[in-house]
Amino acid sequence: MSRLLTIPLMITALCLTSACNNTTRPRIMSNVSGKAGEIGIVMDKAYWEGALGTAMRSVLAADFPYLPQREPMFTLFNVPNNAFTTIFQTHRNLIIVQISTDNPHAQMEIKKNVWSDPQIVIALSGPDAEAVLSVFEQEKEKLVSAIEQAERNRVIVNSKRYEDRSLRMLVNESFGGSPVFPDGYALRKQAKSKDFIWIAYETTRMTQGILIYSYPYVNSDSFSKDRMLQERNAVLKREVPGQLENSYMTTYAGQEPSLRWIHYNGKDFAEIRGLWEVENDFMGGPFVSHAYLDPKTNRILVLEAFVYNPRTAKRNPLRQTESILYSFAWADEQESK
After folding, report:
1. Structural element, H or E, at residue 56
2. Which residues of 83-100 are buried (b: 16+ CB within 10 A; e: fewer)?
3. What is the pLDDT of residues 143-167, one digit of tens each?
């Protein structure tokens, strides 16, 4: 191993073990650098162009699900170990690959705020590339989840820091719980029955919208994908008209939406991910919905994030809007301030 390679690895090892986790003396940390959805992968070019790099790209740069155009889950860039200087160390998302015979076994470590804040640094180490590839394959779901959560947390922190509290109070009053809306979002529509609210951040080119509604819980079939989509389409037809006569938002039937259950922050919810379109018009885009059972009212509360951003990338806007959904809390769980 060359001296140029050894020095960065020694610095990394020290930061990932003790010095960067020193709790006895507070450190002043710089803000993270880099763009949303971007990951810096620190590994030598030979490994990046080999089987290890190919495997990492196949996972981290796979297509983001349910977008009208193909976009990668993350945007990746490679930094050789001997070029990993301070200019890269503050990046928001880092994966550092350390391959050396000094590493007796392969492992993955997840660290936060090593060189900047709020940062996530994932260290993959092992005695050879094959061992690191093996641990990557074993831990890839955990790795992707950790980076997605880090991206999500940044949005939630900013939402709370710059919250428009009046919107949360409005949603609480109607539904007994609410996400946190950052400044810039505004009420677009509230049904007279108060069982539907539409809140959006809008520019001349893009709309990031959040729809909130509920329907009765009857039995477990109320959480089936068919029933949830049936309720969704009925609400959207009634409450989200298009610009043309007899046009309205609905679920795009050309690609079957997905359904999965998620446990997050002590709560379980059903996630539907798919594409929306406007009946009798040419508008569309991606959406994600979270559905909770409200035991107090015996109703299913649905929070939906959607994006309209024609001819422009949609991954980051959707991820930002979706992250707001993850800030949801029932009214009795929320901070009073």
Report:
1. helix 51-60
2. ebeeebbbbbbbbbbbbe
3. 999 999 999 999 999 999 999 999 9
